[in-house]
Design brief:
- By secondary structure, the chain is mainly β.
- The radius of gyration is 13 Å and the shape is globular.
- Strands 2, 4, 5, 6, 9, 10 and 11 form a 7-stranded mixed β-sheet that branches. A 4-stranded antiparallel β-sheet has the order 1-3-8-7, with no helix packed on it.
Length: about 130
């Protein structure tokens, strides 16, 4: 069983930065891709970023490309999402998730491809 716990959310002004962390427990952390998703009120959960098992390949939604950076530290069983130049439209609950199969490119963006989810952390960006 895998448990994922997100932290680092909060309230920030537009243009500011936050770093989200996702601490994982369980045997499969280092073996499979991890992803970040977000869900704004009244909207469907959407893909934000993903990283492969080695940390060498990353994928981003167009809306965050150039502003967000996903990374992982296998020694700490933690995946991060550095968010810069935040915008009010980035306001959402952010979730980390883990797959139990490999993926690449667009194969990493689907919600259904992820098997384990954290409880989410709220990010609010004020204008």
């Amino acid at each position: 069983q895998v448990q994922l716990v997100e932290s680092g959310g909060g309230l920030v002004q537009a243009g500011g930065s936050l770093r989200l962390s996702c601490a994982a427990s369980g045997r499969t952390f280092g073996a499979y891709p991890m992803g970040w998703f977000r869900q704004a009120t009244g909207k469907e959960r959407e893909f934000v970023a993903a990283i492969d098992w080695s940390g060498s390949r990353t994928y981003y939604a167009d809306s965050v490309k150039g502003r967000f950076t996903i990374s992982r530290d296998s020694a700490k069983n933690t995946v991060y999402l550095q968010m810069n130049s935040l915008k009010p439209e980035d306001t959402a609950v952010y979730y980390c998730a883990q797959r139990t199969s490999s993926c690449s490119g667009y194969g990493c963006v689907g919600v259904r491809g992820y098997d384990y989810w954290g409880q989410g952390t709220q990010v609010t960006v004020s204008s």
